[in-house]
Amino acid sequence: MKKESSRVVLVTGASSGIGEAAVLALLARGYRVHAAARRVERMAPLREAGAQIHFLDLTDESSIHVLFENILQTEGRLDALVNNAATAAYGSVEEVSLADARRQFEVNLFGLARLTQLVVPVMRAQCSGTIVNISSVGGRIHTPLGAWYHASKHALEGWSDSLRIETSPIGIRVVVIQPGAIDTEFGPNAIGPLLERSGSGPYRALAHRMAEATRRTFDSGKASPPALIADLIVKAIESPRPKTRYVAGHLARTIMATRKLLSDRLFDALIQKFL
Length: 275
Ligand SMILES: NC(=O)c1ccc[n+]([C@@H]2O[C@H](COP(=O)([O-])OP(=O)(O)OC[C@H]3O[C@@H](n4cnc5c(N)ncnc54)[C@H](OP(=O)(O)O)[C@@H]3O)[C@@H](O)[C@H]2O)c1
Known about the structure:
alpha/beta, 13% strand, 10 helices, 7 strands, 7-stranded parallel beta sheet, binds NADP nicotinamide-adenine-dinucleotide phosphate
């Protein structure tokens, strides 16, 4: 049911996948939604559906400032920020260049952090606001050839915990969502660069097995629809007392429970067996 609301939400990474689904779910609930990403043309259907569309490149601080100032001037407030945009620089630690690793951290952590730094004073002045950080089960577990992605999401988890405890006294709620496999471009898009970096060097056998496992997961039809996470984002924003973390999507709960139960070595062995 549509809920009439003048509440304002910003969603990053809105040009596809979970971000796009979140924009649609929030519009359906009556929110004023600002959608941001680099591929502005991909967001034309969101504009038609009623969202405000913005260019955002999280690796470029001036782009983050321009976006924030535009929204503040138009709305004068921001009730929720959904930090959803991310990239995945898969490949062995030896073979992913530090430039690629830094670029990934710029998107997955530092750009997200800069945007959040701009938003927090607005929410502090309002004495209210919700920040939803889209992490991953990859923020709790690890796989080979995923060191930089896992590092960025593990960092986001710890950063979010500190932000939550720091800002809850001033009325800001911080929620982490940890999706499992979700049917978006994210997994398939990671395969090409993975094979380019590690597909013919010392880790080639592992890289090809990893690519195959990713293909199997995303071609199986078992990956969950992005709307599942979009609904959780709405729930986190609307709940009077949201959970600190939500785990959802294909294999997510199983993976988290397994990680909790197994020692590091047993978990390593399980992942190695799977690959
Ligand atoms: N799909 C999964 O299985 C899965 C599982 C666990 C967690 N997640 C998390 O879910 C979130 C959304 O991913 P998704 O699955 O929806 O993948 P997706 O469809 O590939 O979406 C990623 C979004 O990030 C944006 N983005 C990438 N680089 C950017 C940059 N430099 N500046 C601004 N935006 C940028 C992309 O837009 P532009 O390219 O247009 O900028 C795109 O809209 C991510 O945080 C991801 O880690 C996904």
